[in-house]
Amino acid sequence: xxxxxxxxxxxxxxxxxxxxxxxxxxxxxxxxxxxxxxxxxxxxxxxxxxxxxxxxxxxxxxxxxxxxxxxxxxxxxxxxxxxxxxxxxxxxxxxxxxxxxxxxxxxxxxxxxxxxxxxxxxxxxxxxxxxxxxxxxxxxxxxxxxxxxxxxxxxxxxxxxxxxxxxxxxxxxxxxxxxxxxxxxxxxxxxxx
Length: 193
Description:
Blueprint: H1 2-32, E1 36-37, E2 55-56, H2 57-94, H3 98-107, H4 115-124, H5 128-152, H6 154-157, H7 162-192
Parallel strand pairs: 1-2
Helix pairs in contact: 2-4, 5-7
């Protein structure tokens, strides 16, 4: 029996050595995939091991596929933004009325925050108060130029209806100046608010 117990002891020692070799082989295999966990492999797992290595090979494949799809999406989005920007640019160059321009702006409002379109819309959009002030000043200068021609030509001054034309000019100029002052006051209120 002693010899049978000795043989059993030798077998147990050999089995333990073989298990250690298998564990060492598993550690070598796991070391080659450092940072990547195989699903179902729990060899050497510590309590906080999830903090250092939680990415699997399938996760890496999904991430590379996602990166590829994201690059394609980004390039398509950029191309669409350029096409919309070109369309808006052409539409503003053809638009003659303020209402048409405002309608175009309203239709593209959700994408006005894009960097490419922002510069085009900023160049095309002008504050309505500023446009009215510019219109008032332009009209006043055109009328003043015509009246300066009247002042230089003495024959026009001697005509019978010149005093009537002069009074009409003065009323129009005064109305335009008052209108301009009113618009400037409104614009300052908007800025201060």
